[in-house]
Design a protein that fits this description.
alpha/beta, Hypothetical Protein Ychn, Chain: A, 5 strands, single chain
Length: 140
């Protein structure tokens, strides 16, 4: 009977110690994010979200990327529509990315894409690749 009690106690202590250690490990995990959007108007709430996450997570906040795809991709070449989103994104640690497939499909002049915006060949594929790397993802 004593042996069963001692074995059970050791089992529970080991289990709870490992559980607590796992929680400690998770608290130092870097969180990376990717958002796929079809409209420039979504940049404002996306940037605000990134700023809030950066403040909440501190050193655990990693990369935050926004991929713009779809038929409104041409809006990224309009200074009036982009406003100061690029400077706000940079200040918040947000990288804006344009989908090359959408730029081609909707015949957007790539030379007019702001230099701060990175272009990838296929935004949807890029999103999946980031998810494979552990990025938390949402599509708006």
């Amino acid at each position: 009977m004593k042996t069963i009690f001692i074995t059970a106690t050791l089992f529970f202590l080991t289990f709870f110690t490992l559980s607590i250690h796992a929680q400690d490990t998770n608290s130092s995990t870097i969180n990376d994010y990717v958002v796929l959007t079809k409209t420039i108007e979504q940049l404002q709430p996306i940037i605000l979200t990134a700023k809030a996450l950066k403040q909440d997570e501190g050193v655990n906040f990693g990369k935050f990327e926004v991929i713009i795809c779809g038929k409104q991709i041409g809006d990224i070449t309009s200074p009036e529509k982009m406003g100061d989103f690029i400077s706000k994104a940079n200040a918040a640690g947000v990288q804006i990315i344009a989908c090359g497939f959408s730029l081609n499909k909707f015949k957007v002049n790539k030379t007019k894409v702001p230099k701060e915006i990175i272009t990838v060949e296929n935004g949807i594929l890029y999103n999946f690749q980031l998810q494979k790397k552990g990025y938390k993802s949402i599509t708006l």
